[in-house]
Specification:
The complex is a heterodimer of chains A (324) and B (256). Chain A is an alpha/beta fold. Chain A folds into 2 domains: 4-176, 3-Layer(aba) Sandwich (Rossmann fold), CATH 3.40.50; 202-323, Rossmann fold (3-Layer(aba) Sandwich), CATH 3.40.50. Chain A is built from 8 helices and 17 strands. In chain A, β15, α7 (274-277) and β16 form a beta-alpha-beta unit. The radius of gyration of chain B is 21 Å and the shape is globular. Classes of the chains: A alpha/beta (324), B alpha/beta (256). The structure holds flavin-adenine dinucleotide (FAD) and adenosine monophosphate.
């Protein structure tokens, strides 16, 4: 069987963590299949990355081109497409991230490689790829079989697979010529836009009172704010709370918000989607209040209360003020 | 400016008790409430806002069963002009859905196609970007801002950690819309009643000249509840007792 390819994800001079997470899985899949794995590095001035990668992968394929300086799905797709034709990998792995989500589905159609996205598990069975996906907001797992094919594409959920550290190996670095002939007009990168630095920095808080869509509406926010003050903490939230303008963006915990590690993370009315969980699971103690006993948040929390927050929070507020 | 918005009807599962069907292939759906996919709601609203600026028509398109009419009505009440429903091919495969949508979309002129970033139920995050490739037009996913000017769109894409990127993309294109791109508008009962008079066209796969190829890219072998693994210690008792235990935990952990 031919190699497993890993697409290296990097941005603003840094390899992104998801890449190392993919390495671990790629290695075990390659072992299972009696094959090897290759890191595919596309970019401009990325040789320093290649050295780092070669200590984790037996082979690093590098294409340098100034048009690949910033991620552009059109140019990445062209480049990968020609590499796939040349090397015929059995599987191409990438992150289920802003990067992979913009690239994998179109490449899959072009190459006619079946795609499975957002995987939390992946194996080959009799040459066919099988995946585990977490669906219905994390309440159910699905085992998915892909049709027989000479090649597959899979995107992996961030924060699930343990990252692969530097090994003893010294992989081969292979430079390839770029198949690109200049840039493209249809899609052009212009610039990055950093999040404005404003207001409260939730990453510094020791205690976070974090609210989700389950609080029902903005009318309850003052109650949570008061609770946060009484606890000597700060209020934060999940994404829908920001989307609905109940709280400003700087309060958002998650993959597209902030990563937090407080001493205590109190999650109220938050279901526990991975985009939220990956950014708060490093907290010392996680306490979840949710009326649904099957909410996925209870599998990352240390303590849980299964109840309507309205039965709990007012009492908690009273008890906390006695505590001070 | 003619805008097509692809929408999906999904079961709401966040607060519901979930049961698995006897054949283990899916969850039981008869006890669930269905709604318009959250991401698609933002996409429809965005299309209507663009139409208010540039005129033209907003068409909503779904591949789904008869019951999907209710979400189409909702989209029409939000300001879409007309709706198309394609009878759902069973089973559900992202690639198949994208090919079905493409078949319908190719029959008419359009300037812009909007989809959601992902469907809330099975969250493939695949259909929009695959659709663009099938149609042979560019795409941008996870879009949080659209500015249209002279046959091009400047769009902001959401990356990780609060970072975004600004892109320029040629129209026609497919944009997959992220939640929070706009402020949802309250849909009045009057608007829903009015929507019922707007046109909804219904078609079968045969009528659009589509014959799905076999086998599908992906099939579900079985669904199951996630392994329990590490579970939170659930505090038990009356609300008073539970909160008592909770304050003790907070006191202890706060000091440590
Ligand atoms: C590209 C991308 C990036 C994303 N980035 C982020 C991100 O950075 N951060 C983020 O949070 N999400 C992010 N998301 C969204 C994520 O997928 C989920 O949609 C979101 O986290 C769900 O928020 P929630 O838990 O507040 O709401 P829901 O999933 O709706 O959950 C609400 C919960 O409240 C409970 N509940 C309801 N009523 C009550 C009550 N009265 N008392 C107690 N509990 C109650 C329910 O049982 C449910 O579990 C992103 C998604 C995408 C596609
Ligand atoms: N059956 C469908 N009919 C119409 N549009 C769909 C359908 N399924 C998915 N979509 C669109 O594709 C987006 C992404 O869905 P998915 O790739 O399934 O996560 C959704 O937000 C919809 O805009």
């Amino acid at each position: 069987m031919s190699d497993i390819f890993i697409l290296v994800e990097h941005r603003q001079g840094k390899i992104r963590d998801i890449t190392y997470e993919i390495f671990g899985l790629a290695e075990s899949l390659a072992n299972q299949q009696g094959t090897s794995f290759t890191a595919v590095l596309l970019g401009h001035d990325v040789k320093s990355f290649a050295d780092d990668l070669s200590r984790r992968a037996p082979k690093v394929l590098v294409i340098e081109d100034e048009n690949l300086e910033h991620f552009n799905s059109v140019l990445y797709q062209k480049t990968l497409s020609s590499l796939i034709s040349k090397y015929q990998p059995s599987l191409l792995l990438m992150g289920h991230s802003a990067f992979g989500m913009d690239l994998a589905p179109s490449l899959s159609v072009e190459k006619d490689f079946p795609l499975v996205t957002d995987c939390i598990g992946l194996t080959f069975e009799e040459g066919k790829l099988k995946a585990t996906r977490s669906i219905y907001g994390g309440k159910v797992n699905a085992s998915v079989s892909l049709r027989e094919s000479k090649g597959y594409i899979a995107t992996l959920r961030p924060g699930i697979f343990p990252p692969k550290m530097h090994g003893e190996i010294k992989g081969r670095i292979v430079m390839e010529a770029s198949p690109l002939e200049g840039g493209v007009d249809v899609k052009k990168f212009i610039e990055y836009i950093e999040a404005p630095i404003t207001g409260e920095d939730i990453t510094q808080a020791e205690i976070l009172v974090s609210i989700g869509q389950g609080i029902g509406g903005p009318e309850h926010i003052p109650m949570f704010e008061e609770l946060a003050i009484r606890l000597g903490g700060t209020i934060s939230c999940s994404r829908p709370v920001v989307d609905r303008n109940w709280l400003p963006k700087e309060r958002q915990v998650g993959i597209s918000g902030k990563t937090v590690k407080p001493k205590i993370y109190l999650a109220i009315g938050i279901s526990g989607a991975f985009q939220h969980v990956t950014a708060m699971q490093g907290s010392d103690t996680i306490i979840a209040i949710n009326k649904d006993p099957r909410a996925p948040i209870f599998s990352v929390a240390d303590y849980g209360i299964v109840d309507d927050f309205q039965n709990v929070i007012p009492i908690l507020k009273e008890k906390i003020s006695d505590m001070k | 400016m003619n805008i097509i918005v692809c929408v999906k009807r999904i079961p709401k599962t966040a607060e519901a008790d979930i049961f698995i069907e006897k054949d283990n292939k899916d969850i039981k759906k008869d006890n669930l409430v269905f709604a318009l996919n959250d991401w698609d709601g933002y996409a429809v609203r965005e299309a209507v806002l663009l139409k208010e600026k540039f005129e033209g028509e907003v068409i909503v398109l779904t591949v789904g069963p008869d019951e999907s009419k209710e979400v189409l009505t909702r989209c029409l009440a939000m300001g879409a002009d007309r709706a198309i429903r394609i009878e759902e091919p069973i089973p559900n495969d992202g690639r198949l859905i994208a090919e079905t949508l493409a078949k319908v979309i190719q029959t008419g002129p359009f300037d812009l196609i909007l989809t959601g970033v992902q469907a809330e139920d099975d969250g493939w995050g695949q259909v929009g970007v695959a659709l663009a490739q099938i149609l042979g037009i560019p795409h941008a996913s996870i879009v949080t801002h659209i500015h249209i000017e002279g046959g091009k769109a400047k769009v902001r894409r959401e990356l990780e950690g609060g970072l975004e990127e600004l892109l320029e993309i040629k129209l026609p294109a497919v944009l997959t819309i992220q939640t929070g791109i706009n402020e949802p508008k309250y849909v009045s009962l009057a608007a829903i009643l009015e929507a019922e008079d707007k046109e909804t066209k219904e078609m079968t796969l045969e009528e659009i000249g589509f014959s799905p190829r076999e086998p599908l890219d992906a099939t579900i072998d079985q669904v199951s509840f996630p392994p329990t693994g590490k579970r939170a210690e659930i505090l038990k008792g009356t609300p008073d007792e539970v909160v008592g235990q909770l304050t003790e935990i907070i006191k202890r952990k706060k000091g440590s």
